[in-house]
Design a protein that fits this description.
The chain is mainly alpha-helical. It is built from twelve helices and ten strands. The structure holds alpha-D-glucopyranose.
Length: 389
């Protein structure tokens, strides 16, 4: 564990990113815990580098695609630093066989706004990545499927509790199960998944981020086709809104995969499931989300919203993906509040992000009530506070 960085300004952010920067052209999320390149992390890092006025913004976003397959699939972990290290878990060298939310279109749009427009090659890679999701992942309900809890980026969320034993045991059964779920993937000739024998879920969060990135790509390029795809996916997501719970819920149409799992945990009120607020045209739903985010009996807390609604039985403010605050989610909610024309709410989120980053020493995630750091530190994406302007 390195020294915590507890001041929050551009200089502190630069120190964290410099420390985690690798000569291979990407920023590790954290040098000790997460030395490899993670896909959605790198997209957030590119946004941070751009906010710092540093040319590594473009380098990092382009390098997020080094392992993109000829069919467009973008792996979520790149092992370019030590390619054989991937073999044990993934059975191939160099990269994983899963993906993560395609935050690259949003990153490209933010870089373009910061005077760093993507090259035609990068734009083509982004479009191929989105295209692959829209080709391989559609389920019968109009939503896109995830084939592993890691694909949503929120691996220990109680939304996946139908796949593990009660009580939840992070380092016991669930850790083993996540590995079994890698073995259950159905891969094509490019080592990209086309299905799973055990986990096929249309997660509300993953779909919100896919729709959002399709719309970001449409804004960036003027493509009416990507606008239509983003809007259609948003409509399918909006069909999953639960008015009583005030959240979008997951679906689990496993189509021909027939996983045999009855997914009964997809309506747990998690913060990530509220990311539909980035895309929904329904102002009433958006208002409900913003109210709950700051309500101290719902998600509200001093150092940013709780990762779970406080009434959920699984709520634990210190736990990894089961109640703690995550900085990249706060950043995305800030984007939603800003774009929807709520500057005061946006500023409250930006403030909580800065205070949480400072109190936690730039931790990976933190207790939303105390700001006490949890997980790895310093974590690169926590510097997103420099991009909330
Ligand atoms: C954890 C998070 C995942 C992230 C990775 C690297 O596994 O759950 O979302 O990409 O760490 O930071």
């Amino acid at each position: 564990m390195t020294d915590p960085v507890d001041s929050v300004d551009s200089a502190a952010a630069l120190r964290v990113l410099e420390r985690n920067w690798r000569s291979d052209g990407y920023t590790s999320p954290n040098l000790e815990t997460y030395p490899w390149q993670w896909l959605w992390d790198s997209c957030f890092h590119a946004i941070i580098w751009a906010a710092l006025g540093d040319g590594r913004a473009t380098v990092e976003l382009e390098r997020a695609f080094v392992h993109q397959r000829p069919n467009g699939f973008v792996p979520h972990v790149g092992y370019q630093h030590d390619p054989p290290a991937a073999l044990a878990l993934w059975g191939i060298e160099g990269a994983s066989t899963l993906t993560q939310p395609p935050m690259y279109a949003h990153a490209a749009r933010r870089l373009a706004n910061a005077g760093r427009p993507p090259s035609p090659v990068l734009l083509a890679r982004i479009e191929a990545g989105l295209e692959h999701l829209w080709r391989v992942r559609p389920a019968g309900n109009g939503l896109l499927s995830c084939f592993h809890p890691w694909e949503g980026g929120t691996d220990d969320s109680p939304r996946w509790d139908a796949w593990t034993l009660t009580p939840f045991d992070r380092f016991g059964h669930w850790k083993r199960r996540k590995r079994e779920l890698v073995d259950a993937l159905v891969l094509d000739e490019h080592a990209s998944p086309t299905g799973s024998r055990a986990f096929v879920v249309q997660s509300a969060a993953f779909n919100a981020l896919c729709a959002f990135n399709a719309l970001e790509f449409a804004d960036l390029t003027g493509s009416s086709e990507w606008r239509r795809r983003g809007e259609d996916l948003t409509a399918a997501l909006d069909a999953r809104w639960d008015e009583a719970l005030g959240t979008w819920t997951d679906a689990a149409d496993d189509g021909p995969c027939d996983t045999g799992v009855d997914h009964d945990s997809g309506a747990v009120r998690t913060l990530e499931a509220l990311l539909g607020v980035l895309v929904t045209p329904d102002e009433r739903r958006a208002d409900r989300v913003f109210t709950d985010l700051f309500d101290p009996t719902a998600y509200g807390a001093r150092f940013g919203p709780c990762g779970l609604h406080r009434d959920e039985p699984a709520f634990d403010p210190d736990a990894y993906w089961r109640g703690a605050n995550w900085p990249q989610l706060v950043y995305l909610l800030w984007v939603a509040a800003t774009r929807r024309g709520h500057p005061q709410l946006a500023e409250r989120l930006a403030c909580a992000l800065r205070e949480g980053a400072a109190a936690s020493g730039h931790a990976e995630y933190w207790n939303p009530d105390t700001g006490e750091g949890r997980g790895a530190a310093p974590q690169s994406w926590t510097c997103l506070y420099v991009a909330t302007v």
